[in-house]
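Quick one from the shared queue. A colleague (R.T.) flagged Transposase as missing a structural entry in our internal table.

Convert sequence to structure tokens.
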Amino acid sequence: MFLRLKHFKNKDGSTRSYLQLVENIRVGNKTRQKVLVNLGRVDDLQNSGQIDRLIESLRNFSTKEWIRKEALNVNQTYLWGPVIIFEQLWKELGIERVLKRLLGDTDVVSDYVEAIFAMVLNRLVEPRSKRGVDRWVSKVYRPEFEQLSLQHYYRGLDYLEKFKEEVEEELFSNVKTLFNLNLDLVFWDTTSTYFQGEGPELSMYGRSKDHRSDCKQVMIGVLMTKDGFPVAHQIFPGNTADIDTFRIALEDIRRRFNIDRVIVVADRGMISNGLIEEIDKAGLSYIFGVKMRRSKRVEAVLNQPGDYEEVEENLKVKEVLHEGERYVICFNPFQAERDRIKSEEIVKNLSKKLKEGPKSLVGNRGYRRYLNIQKTDVKIDQEKMASEVKYNGKYVLRTNTKLTNREVAQSYKLLWKVERTFRELKSGLDLRPIYHYTDTRVKGHIMICFLALVMETALCRKLKEIGSTFSYAEILEDLTEIRAVEITVEGKRFLARTETMGNAYDAFKALKIRPPNLLKEIT
């Protein structure tokens, strides 16, 4: 049954509409509409309020409508949106399947697999310690979490550490097929993370990239595809030199993934000439950012003539050979304009402050490099200001690869993904104080972070495939607004879902699944 509007034309050309209750009936091979009740003219029904009264009367005979009206104003709700999305990814990527196979597919093992999923989900949504996760799951709608206790999380870390290599290899095999990835070009980089207190046995004093040489640390290396997809990670003692991690990782990568070519990509300031020589001796390829200022070599490179090749609207490249080394100059015209405006602002501010008195400028490192200081005479150094122009919008890369200039520049741009990877991996360990004091638990915890990174990267990739213009952070924020509410009415249990808000629907579209019904009865 359904309502139908029936329109009739008056003699003066106006129309009148009647509301009818009809049903479809089959007559022979055709479907006809049979009028059950003529409810009356629509304008009369609306003006008299009869439509509203009829709706209210009918609502009393519908359990679902009564619940929607009377019972959705519930204070206690449960997180649901991210659970639905990441559970789908968890299964699509084959993580659940590989864990159950490695651990043994039994009811007892299923609890440990659920604990691992809970820890990964928490890392993606609201990172906490393992004790914090044990409390957090009570606010999440997933019935499978109800049987978990603290020991499941700790034991889950032990299992992850034990089967790390097998999980990574099978996971990447699944991901490679799912996203049509290949390993013709991969990136490797390292970072360090420190511990307060003694730390595990693996932690050692070393060259800290966190500027905490007073603390013990571990080194973490991550292998990524050229598309920015994480493949594997390794953990080293805190005193391991970067070049040693490269050698160990290269050997391990070739053994496990049959990769012949690894390119080390690193930012300016992180690489010394001595390290470059060691990397060359080790037979590794590299793309390094070069320190721009106070370098005669860079000035010589920038002064060489040649035409730029356009890679993107905001990126042009030019190759320069200098003293037997290959350099690629990258130029962003939009950044050059921003740099020019910034320089003009600096000159304005300097001129204003010099009129007020130069003493305050001498100690300002930001301004001092633009000043010519001769005893008591302080003035703007016009020569220095002019020399800054050649740096506007530019950065220089040094490489020993056979990649094209375009590929070198684009490969270096992927470095931010590697750096972001490290921020994700380090976020859990940087929670103070650190709650893990054994190598096994620390390695298991970092593996949780790695799996979370894979899940996030996979979701971003799927969002990109459907052309979503929203960021991962925006999607996740809206997903967390999708809540679940359990309601009991006359002895029956119902599960209600809040509306899909903002950009959350893009996540469902990307994974080709529908949001759950707004209301359903549960047993």
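The mean pLDDT is 84.
The chain has 21 helices and 18 strands.
Added to the table.
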